[in-house]
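To fix ideas, we reproduce below one chain and its tokenised fold.
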Amino acid sequence: MPIAVARTKPRESRRPLIVDIRRGSLDDGPGIRSVVFFKGCPLRCVFCHSPETQEICPEIAFTEERCIHCGSCVKACPQAALDLSSPTRIGRDRCDLCGACEDACPTSALRIVGKYWPVDSLVELLLRDVSFYRHSGGGVTLSGGECTLFPEYVETLLLKLKALGVHVAIETSGWFDYEVFAKKILPFLDLIFFDLKLMGADESRRYLGQSNEKILENLRRLLAEPRRAGRVEVRPRVPLIPDITDTRMNLSRVVNRLYDLGASTLSVLPYNPLGLAVYSRLGKPAPHLSTSFTKPDREAELVDTVRSLIAGDRWRPRRGQI
């Protein structure tokens, strides 16, 4: 079982917190999978699909449409951090994330985002679906946020899963310490989804909050690794963010870089705007982005664009879901 967060709110904690565990997923690797979403990411993508996974420390989320104004949370809060008459409801500077309001709320309008799971408890939960993994060719996918921020925890988790024959994938932004990754995480993986968003250095700093130098170098080293007899598959992918990553210039740069590195596939991920609603729940301003999903005809147009840029029939553009 997960362990509740402490009353103190650290600015940074290296103990991994988990935002969600999604069982029965069909979108994050082959077969039926369980997806573990870690909290904490070194990037600050303005188009982040999961803003609740950015901060490494726990946060409180308020979903206004679930609130029935019963006042139970106000009575339960020992810090007097809640006010139903306030537009924001939560005095976040006073909240110590004790979780009393979450326990008191009958509709789950208030929720602490990020709880710690001991490795053995997490493995126990993930193994409840092991028969589905085996019959469908599925397994477990570690996502985020960025799971590679917690190499010791992830290494222990992967060791236990691989000892039981579970297929394991990760979804990564590519921004990690390669030496640590190669030693503690890479040896236990079957599949790596490696996100490539922007190729230009200035665009990366503007839209990702970081230079892409480390990301590109990590991908180069990863593709140059002796693939351990071909066991580890690396799938680069690009999210199609309107007017940011889906431009012909950016897609051309992505394709050219992957071709130079010897990659053989590229996945494209349709834009999903559902993450925009999460910002207000966390008390943060939402970025000014499209609120519409990628339309099928636009997606087909972008896939055709990628195909037209690809050199050689060894390239296979794939479709995925973000």
